[in-house]
Amino acid sequence: MNTMAHLGVGIGWRPEIADAVERLPGLDWVEVVAENICPGHLPASLLRLRERGVRVVPHGVSLGLGGAERPDAAKLAALGERALALGAPLVTEHIAFVRTSSPALEAGHLLPVRRTRDALDVLCENVRIAQEALPVPLALENIAALVSWPGEELTEGQFLTELVERTGVRLLIDVANLHTNRVNRGEDPFAVLDAIPLEALAYVHVAGGVERDGVWHDTHAHPVPAVVLDVLAELRERVAPAGVLLERDDDFPAEAELAGELAAIRGVVGPPEAVVLAPAGPSALRRGSAPVDPRRRSRVGEEQGALLSALVAGAEVPEGFDEERVRVQARALAAKRAGVVAKLAPELPGILGGEAPYREAFLGYAGSRPMTAGYRRDALDFAEHLLIRDLPADPAARRRLTTWWQDRAGARPPRRIVRWARALAGRAA
Asked: Is 43 left (phi over 0), alpha (psi -120 to 50) or beta?
């Protein structure tokens, strides 16, 4: 058995709260979104934390290990590079799919894997590929979901248990996600805790959310509610977690409020204890390692493609799904796209006259243009979409948007934009 080094109580490091994180009393460790950092240019705040002995764990969001395709070798290499640069004891990712290849679509979000034998076989093979490529142990997180797959063959507990047994992977249990799935999918969080191998627990996530019209939204932008702390307490009754982490990704509160939430978490988990984890060595990786029948990958890909097409491309909702829930998820994905693009390209709302007109224009674009290559490309495609339609209506705003697009695209604009730009230049002369 491998003993997991005690992590303690930590917080998700985000640039917006970097200064506050450094000042938080008694901070043991932080987690950073792996895709948001460059190994050769680590933020000064993270370097200072590391110098103080605060551990840093990279948390990936883009591998899509639950998808039908094998993991991307470049993404795996990048995740491993970040783990080494940070001196991390492990890396984490999600039990989710985020894209499909046929059709080529990006969700920009973590979507639930259907709990079937086909999907489990694909996931296990993808996990083994990842484990062999990564320089440190891997832990996988259960996700929150708005929609339920029809015709599932395994419970969440059965699915996670067999995943651990077949791959030796560790688990990152998000208790907020367990509560989310209680509200949205009728799943008992305590039954999941009773069913899964908690000796494989790497650490725990805690986060806030909000309920609207009977749907729980795992926002990471609200205070941690008592019901989520109750699930944490139930987990603590069963096992002493090596680490517990507070996630906050938006609407960041005052530093004192963050410190208060960390204190509440410490009050639930109590003093540290030694934690023993299931082995994650070669013997575990050999179990159930026969190659997956390509037909299974194909079936999983077809199912995921049909759902993602309904969520982001306006296709018909696949049979057996709750159509209203799929529509709720589709609206949430479009709103998230708008928000992330605005963060990556904060000039766009300014060019378009403010947050409200920007969102109206972006949601109109998103309804007919699914994302296919990530958020940065999405921002450029949105600007191109507007310019091709001679938008925005104000010529000065169009000039600003054209300049913005040209500065970032690294290629010639579409012909119609070139003609328009030349016409503007002629008028100015």
From this structure: beta
- How many alpha carbons fall within 13 Å on the CB side of residue 178? 28
- Local confidence band at 3 (pLDDT 50, 70, 90 cut-offs): low
What span, in angstroms and rounded, lies between the C-alpha atoms of 246 and 24? 12
pLDDT confidence of residue 271 = 78
Residue 377 sits at the vertex; the CA angle it makes with 375 and 382, to the nearest 5 degrees, is 90
d(CA 129, CA 132): 5
Question: How far, in Å, CA of 285 to CA of 166, rounded?
Answer: 7
User: Distance (Å, rounded) from C-alpha 374 to C-alpha 107?
Assistant: 9
**pLDDT tens by residue, 307-343:** 999 999 999 999 999 999 999 999 999 999 999 999 9
* Residue keyed to tokens 């004891």: 89
Q: Assign 217 to helix, strand or coil.
A: strand
Dist CA 393 CA 408 (whole Å): 22
CA distance 103 to 148: 21
Q: What one-letter code names the amino acid at 313?
A: A
**Tokens read off for 388:** 């091709």
User: How many whole angstroms from its chain centre is CA 189?
Assistant: 21
CA distances from 313 to 69, 70, 71, 404, 408 (A): 20, 24, 24, 27, 26
Q: Which residues contact 350 (CB under 8 A, 6 or more apart)?
A: none
Dist. CA 307–CA 105, nearest whole Å? 11
Task: Find out whether 217 and 332 touch, Cβ atoms under 8 Å.
Answer: yes
**Cα–Cα distances in Å, from 153 out to 6, 115, 117, 179?**
36, 6, 7, 22
In 3D, which of 207, 147, 136 has the Cα closest to residue 181? 147
Structure letter (DSSP) for residue 134: -
SS3 263: helix
Dump the DSSP string for 238-251.
H---SEEEEE--SS
What pLDDT does 279 receive?
A: 45
SS3 9: strand
CA Rg value for the chain: 23
Asked whether the CA dihedral 176, 72, 147, 157 is positive or negative, the reply is: negative
* pTM score, whole prediction: 0.89
Q: Which two tokens stand for residue 68?
A: 């039908």
Give the residue ranges of DSSP H helices in 87-148.
117-133
Question: Amino acid identity, residue 96?
Answer: A
Residue whose structure tokens are 């002629």: 426
